[in-house]
Structure formats: structure tokens, C-alpha cells
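fold-stage: in
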Amino acid sequence: MAEAQTIEERIKQRYAELSPSLRRAADLVMQQPFDVATRSLRQMASDSSVAPPTFSRLARALGYKNYAVLREQCRREASSRETSFAKKADALFAVDEEKSAGRGAFMVAQARSSITNITALVESMDLDRLADAADSLASARSVYLLGAMSGAAFMTYAAYVASITADNWRMLDLSRSTNSSALLSLEPGDAVLALSHHPYSRQTVNAVRIAHDAGARVTAITDSPASPLLANATHSFIVRVESPQFFPSHAATLVLLESLLGMVVRRQGKHVQARMAAVESLNRALGEYYEA
């Protein structure tokens, strides 16, 4: 395993192979990298109720000689990682473009980061798993879209696109009781498409759990193997959101979402063309389009 890999990359690569106890330890390393970097193994074990030997076994499972080596890499990564939006904003505004790489240089850095994230998505994608998720959404009685905070915009977009070809996709605004009560009608023939990135939405995580318990098939899009969405997902996809600015980059997330939507439309068959034409005609009748 390449030494240049980050701890996050190693965990993502091996996560499916880890035992439940090692996954718990891996989740803690992902969720609390600063604690791993600054606290002793004994303190970590005491606070987390994970035995010290479990952390040691995790280190070896990830390709490290021992836990001390894992901890040292965590220290190096923690020292170069800005952990809050505010701190990343400080670094962002401290850069003088005109005195460094020239005006507009940040746009190049942002674009390169997005391209890297998209490339990682394509290279790591299990196409059979993606096809299974599309099958699940296309065959569902009803599809419920769950997303809050930054995820809300993506789910609103997905609901709009889906409405052009189908009438059984519904965006749920969990902040409104009239919408969240729809979770009560979930049953095994339904599907849920949920999206949440760190910091994770409590509403989305809880709704996914409720959907899973009701027997609905859940497709989850998130950003880490430590994401709480994964515990109740039928199909899950982890997307890189690295960015040089203070906020995560969602370019790769959009590529995945657009791909899923396109695959679902293909599975709906050519009859959706008639609905698309009817929707377009109705929008024109309602004056939705600007036409000179």
C-alpha cells in the first residue's frame, strides 16, 4: 500500500473487509482525528469503550506497523488540516492572488480539486452497485428524497428533474410536520434517496433509519465511511468533497446524482417521452418559459 495514502483513503479501501469491532475503531479514527493525534491510546480506549488491542489491530489491518505509526500520520494530517469552515475561510482570505499565482488563480485550484474528486468517483465506482441502485429507484412504488442543509438543494434539483418523467418522486422537507408525516406511509415497495455530508443532518440520519425500519430500500450518498447514513443504507456511495475553499466541493456529488437520475429515466422506457412532452406543453401554457 502506497505510503502517500492518507488515513482516510486507507480506511475507505479496507472498510468493507474490517470486522464490526475494527469498523467501530475506524469510525472513531475518522470522526476524531484530532483526539487520535493528541491523546494516548489508553485515553482513546477509555473514552470510547474500544479496547486498546482493537486500535492496534486496526493499525495493522490498514497497513501500518503499529498504532504509533498510525497516530504519527494522524498528527501530520491534523497539523495541515483546517477543521472548521471559519478556519478555512481565514486561510482563503489570507491569499493574495495578485501577488502569488495571478488573478483568478483560485478558480484554477477549485476546478482542479473538483476534477480530482470526479476522477476519484469514476475510478472507484462499482458500476454493478450503481446499476442496482438505479434499478431500486426505477422500480419503487414511491421515491422519497431526503436532504437537509447543503443536501436540500440537491434533493430539490433531483425532485424537479424526476417530476418531468415521473409522478412518484417526492421531496420531503423534514422541517415541516406536514411533509415529515409522509414517513409513516413508507413500506417495503418504496425507495429513499438520501444525501448528507459532514456535518451530518440529524433529521436526515433519523429519517433514513425510520425508512430502513419500515422496509424501504435506501440509497445513500455521503462523504465518509464514518457517515451515520451507512448503517441503514441498502446502497451507499462515498464521494470526495475536498476543496481549497472553506466549504466542501459538491461537483462529484452532482455528477453521481445526475448519473443516477439518467439511469432511472433509461429504465422507465420510451413511454416517458410522452410525459416529457406533456410537461413541456403545460409549462408553456402556464407561461413558465421566457419566449421573446
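fold-stage: in (second)
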Amino acid sequence: MVNNTREAIQKTSSGRRKLVLGVGLLSILALFSRAIKVPGRQGRNGVDCAPGNKGETVKMLTQDGRLVEIDKALLASGGKKVSDEELKRWVKR
């Protein structure tokens, strides 16, 4: 009976070891695939909004009255200026 439990424990632990080894190999493979630049593979076409990437920003007022900074690349061009009266009606209090 003692041998049966030891064998059962060894079988389950070897299965767990195989699982952990497989997950580890997949994660290493994923890291290497990100490090190697594959020809024909394009990067994302988007704006990098990482904290370290400081582009030209614009200060804007939100509808609830908070002042926020927005990257200029995210804004559509050709906007018109708002008059003071329109702004006073637009802000919620």
C-alpha cells in the first residue's frame, strides 16, 4: 500500500513537472519571438501613449470642468475656437 501511494505521487508530480516545463518553454519561446524581428511583420500603426513618450501636448477642459493634457496627434485638425459664452453653457456644474 505504501508503494502504491508513492507511485501515485510520483506520477502526479511528473505530470506537474511536464506542465510547468511546457509553460516555461512556451514563455521563453514567446520572449524570443518578440526579440527577433521577422521580415514582413509590421508593427502597430498607432500612437504610443507610454508615460516616457512625451510628444507635444495640448491642455483642454473636460465637460465636468477638469483640465487635462492630450497628445496633439490624437486630435483632429481643423477645429474652431469656442466662444466664452458657448463654453459657459457647455460646462456642467
